[in-house]
Amino acid sequence: MVVTSPLKGQSHSHSFTKFLPYALYALLPIALFRLYFHPFPFPQSTTDQLSHNSRIILTTSSSSSSSPPLSFSKEEEIANETPCDYANGGWVHDKMGPLYNGTTCGTIKDGQNCISHGRPDLGYLYWRWQPSQCKLPRFDPNTFFHLLSNKHIAFVGDSMARNQLESLLCMLATASYPNLVYKDGVDTKFRRWHFASYNITISVYWSPFLVRGVEKSKTGPDHNELFVDTVDARWGADLDHIDMIVLSTGHWFLHPAVYYEGGSILGCHYCPGLNHTEIGFYGVMRKAIKTALETIIERKGANGNGIDVLLTTFSPSHFEGEWDQAGACPKTKPYKEGEKMLEGMDADMRAIEVEEMETAKVNAKQFGGLRLEMLDVTKLSLMRPDGHPGPYMYPFPFANEVQERVQNDCVHWCLPGPIDTWNQILLEVIRRWSIQSRREE
Ligand SMILES: *[C@@H]1O[C@H](CO)[C@@H](O)[C@H](O)[C@H]1NC(C)=O
Ligand SMILES: *[C@@H]1O[C@H](CO)[C@@H](O)[C@H](O)[C@H]1NC(C)=O
Ligand SMILES: *[C@@H]1O[C@H](CO)[C@@H](O)[C@H](O)[C@H]1NC(C)=O
Question: Rounded distance, CA 89 to CA 133, Å?
Fold first, then answer.
């Protein structure tokens, strides 16, 4: 097979080698991806309930807002030790279990509310992530409120961004209930909550490519169209009012797409009917992340306002069998340390994100007030094949009789579930930043 590199002159010489697997992924059944990566194919009753309830339920305790997040000696300890590598470690049994359940929080998307959908095994809830060199503290909502008061935090990206946001809201709701203050029509692609007692705004922006994209539709093109040199206007327009941005992207780049750059066609991925060069998706995803990070740095650096930027790394899926048969992701326990290696597409996607973040950190140094960090969750997520909804993306899928064919979601994460750990790490990054900046004052 002759592959013409469309990325000639690109600074990342190794990206060419990353091309090779594209042919493999082009062979995966495209219908499957349509199913799993379509953002909101299900009824949104939970959201509707929230909009009714949320205005009445308010935090009752204002004293919690004044509780100090950490003692001085603990701060010293954190500031002096080398930053913990949260990315590597193992899952260990934990009797404590999750902070919340499917009834304590109105924001869990139905398809991820596994307990309420009748998932019978609950062992997957009793594990905590143990990094190799340090301890990851349990999530403390009041620390979050204390550190982020008067701030606007935006989750921007695909359905993994939404999954992570909903986990965060559920954990925060155990201490103070969020008011849903904005919702985009019947959809839940764009939502915003406000924690009145702390003046914290948390929002979610649907932006699966981070850059401008036209999603395939019944009336439009039957593939996605991506403009890799322009950020998605929806979140781009709000950037001036965002203090912390959490980016998440990846899975949508596997879809068939035509790519544009500088007004001309760059190439495509899986577009057999069209006369464009197949270029895979790795190089394009790299460009999209680069565009997003560069835009954030230039805009927020130039106006001197600063911003905190986190990039959540690729979240592996765990399909073992046919997606429409029982047992597509049947495991009920995490992998043990060393049992599952990070490799193939999961490793490649993560590597691109890590490299682009490193480049962005260097670029950001010319400005003050910009803090950038990875949320490197790929490995810890890879080790949780038991954490997906599987057939419980639908309520009681086996209620009538054992069905031969049932859809499985082995991509998103049950709430509560392993994805709560992502936000534990998020909070630790924020805590470290806060301590460092106070010491620099
Ligand atoms: C969920 O949590 C709430 C509050 O802690 C508790 O009252 C309730 O019994 C729990 N529900 C289930 C099903 O465990
Ligand atoms: C509330 O937070 C927003 C940022 O989300 C900030 O612009 C505003 O000044 C804050 N309001 C008060 C009263 O501090
Ligand atoms: C496809 O593109 C090539 C190179 O640009 C061109 O020579 C050829 O005529 C095109 N074929 C069709 C069917 O458009």
Answer: 8
If pLDDT is split at 50, 70 and 90, which confidence band does 321 have? Answer: confident
- Judge contact between 232 and 210, C-beta under 8 A: yes
Q: What is the pLDDT of residue 284?
A: 98
| 152 in contact with ligand 2, CB cutoff 6 A | yes
Q: Is 97 in the pocket of ligand 1 (CB under 6 A)?
A: no
Q: What are phi and psi of 189, to 5 degrees?
A: -70, -30
* Ligand with smallest separation from the Cα of 100: 1
pTM score of the predicted model:
0.84
Q: Do 376 and 312 contact (CB within 8 A), yes or no?
A: no
**The residue type at 327:** G
Quote the distance between the C-alpha of residue 318 and its chain's center.
16
In Å, what is the CA distance from 406 to each residue of 105, 156, 396?
A: 27, 31, 11
CA of 196 to the centre of ligand 2 (A): 10
Token couple for 354: 């890590």
Active site residues per annotation: 159, 409, 412
- Distance between CA atoms of 241 and 70, rounded to whole angstroms? 28
Fold held by 75-440: Rossmann fold (3.40.50)
Closest residue CA from atom 12 of ligand 2:
150
Determine the Cα–Cα distance for residues 263 and 266; give it in Å rounded to an integer.
9
What region does 83 belong to: left with phi over 0, alpha with psi -120 to 50, or beta?
beta
Is the distance from the beta carbon of residue 101 to the nearest atom of ligand 1 less than 6 Å? Answer: yes
- Closest ligand to Cα 195: 2
Are the C-beta atoms of residues 19 and 279 closer than 8 Å to each other? yes
Looking up tokens 């890590």 gives 354
Contact assessment for residue 380 and residue 129, using Cβ atoms and an 8 Å cutoff: yes
Whose Cα sits closest to atom 7 in ligand 2? Answer: 150
Which residue CA neighbors atom 3 of ligand 1 most closely? 104
Question: Where are the chain's structural domains?
Answer: 75-440
Question: For residue range 127-140, what is the model confidence (pLDDT) as tens digits?
Answer: 999 999 999 999 99
Check: CB of residue 144 under 8 Å from CB of residue 172: yes
**Helix residue ranges, H only, 200-311:** 233-236, 282-302
> In the predicted model, what is the mean pLDDT of residues 55-75?
43
Give phi and psi for 180, each to the nearest 5: -75, 115
* Residue owning tokens 């009538």: 400
214's enclosing H/E stretch is: strand 211-214
